[in-house]
Design brief:
Blueprint (H helix, E strand, L loop, with lengths): L2 H16 L19 E2 L2 E2 L2 H11 L15 E2 L6 E7 L4 H19 L4 E7 L4 H12 L5 H10 L1 H5 L4 H11 L4 H8 L2 H18 L6 E4 L2 E4 L4 H11 L2
Parallel strand pairs: 4-5
Antiparallel strand pairs: 1-2, 3-5, 4-6, 6-7
């Protein structure tokens, strides 16, 4: 099968998953009833079980781990936790990752004072595809893959074939063409992202990206570094 055919299949798979507003336009905008770990006597996949556990945990959205595996930068025992909800096609998110995050990393993350969790809050199919792919690359490569997607945001989004450019970046992160197609067909991955998206919208009032929670304190939009630093300093012991 040619690369173009695989990309067409991937786009079609994504369109089916996202089509009809699978979760962006859901009327209820919530996680629905508790998810059972077994359906019709058949055990669900490990990913689906993680999604079910998240839905049934009773924890708040910030405290509930990413059911697909956290994407985190920083030391586990850092006293300040930043949770960022972002869309990979959001220009303000890209600006934060290119200009502000490196300063936060140098001044606080690298010194063991801050850790940051990257949570998906996609607004369109391309952002959804990127979020799914970030969960499909090897865990150690996920932060770097997100970094590349944001740093090269303008080039891949503005190309004649954004999905083909996304596939090239995914290949550099270790995903084969076949892996790329399989990933975008993975309904469990989409469900995990939907659970986080819905919880952030309903419980935390996330409406735009980027939205940050710094030890629980909410900051909306691509804030200047000085504002983020001021909030970090308030949260430090």
């Amino acid at each position: 099968m040619s690369q173009n055919n695989k990309i067409i299949i991937a786009v079609a798979a994504l369109a089916i998953l996202v089509g009809a507003g699978v979760f962006f336009s859901r009327a209820d905008r919530n996680t629905g009833p508790a998810i059972e770990l077994v359906e019709d006597g058949v055990a669900l996949s490990a990913t689906a079980q993680a999604v079910a556990a998240a839905a049934n945990s009773g924890k708040g959205a910030l405290e509930t781990p990413n059911p697909l595996g956290e994407i985190v930068l920083g030391k586990a025992d850092a006293p300040v936790t930043i949770v960022e909800y972002a869309s990979l096609t959001c220009s303000h998110c890209g600006q934060f990752h290119r200009e502000t995050l490196p300063k936060v990393k140098a001044d606080y993350i690298d010194k063991g004072l801050v850790k940051i969790y990257f949570r998906p809050f996609p607004f369109d199919p391309y952002a959804t595809a990127g979020a799914m792919l970030a969960q499909c690359v090897a865990p150690k490569a996920r932060v770097h893959f997100l970094d590349i997607l944001f740093k090269r945001q303008n080039s891949w989004l503005q190309s004649e074939n954004a999905m083909e450019e996304l596939q090239k970046l995914a290949r550099q992160a270790g995903l084969s063409e076949a892996d790329f197609v399989v990933c975008l067909k993975d309904a469990d991955k989409l469900e995990g992202i939907r659970v986080m998206h819905s919880a952030a919208a309903e419980e935390l009032g996330v409406r735009s990206t980027p939205t940050f929670f710094i030890n629980g304190e909410k900051l909306e939009g691509n804030q200047p570094y000085a504002e983020i630093e001021k909030t970090i300093k308030r949260a430090l012991p």
